[in-house]
Each structure stands twice: as C-alpha cells, then as structure tokens.
Model the fold of this input.
Amino acid sequence: MGPTDAPAASWAPVPGRMPAELAAAGIDPADVDAVILTHLHSDHIGWAVTGTPGRPYFPNASYLVQRAEVTAAEALNPGLPAGLIAPLRAAGQLRVVDGEATLPPAVRLLPTPGHTPATSRCW
Done:
C-alpha cells in the first residue's frame, strides 16, 4: 500500500507496515533483487519509490513493469511517470518488458491484461 502518506493511504487498509513486516521476517530492503509491478494502481506502487526526491525503496532491485502499463500511465496519469517511472529510470533500476519475461532461476512473468492494460502475473 505504501507509507502512511502514500496516494492509496486514504482508502487502502494498513498503510505503512511493510518496513516493519520485512524487518520481522529478517529481510533488509537492500537484499531484495527484483520487484514486479503487476500494474500501476496506487495501491500497488506505494513502496516502489519513497522520499523527496523520490528514490527506489529497494536500492538493489530491478523493477519490472509491462510497457503497456507505462504507456497507459503516461496517458492517463501524467504525474505518475514523474513520481515513479522517472526515479526508477534515473537510478538505472527500471526494466520495462513487452509480454513474457523471466527472472532467473525460475520465475516467469506473463501479461494478463484486463484489470489494467497489461496486468502481469508471476508463475
């Protein structure tokens, strides 16, 4: 959902909990190597970029997103690319994919449009 001041915080349940939940599981954000943005609704991107100026919350992760999602975001929500896509790109952490993609060793990303232009699922 994102931090307590994230765009989805006013309507999504329990914003702000991810850092504590990761710590409780013994996971440091620097240890995360991949983040899959299944789609770009505000309740799914809340921890991708934090702070001002925005920086990737997971400093060593590649952030994967379908190109159709980025294109739709640029057309429908002009503020989203500046607040999310641009900081990930500037950090060299954005990986825009077209269709199927793989994350070694065994994760497959499949486009499953419907909810949004290119919602993705992992298998």
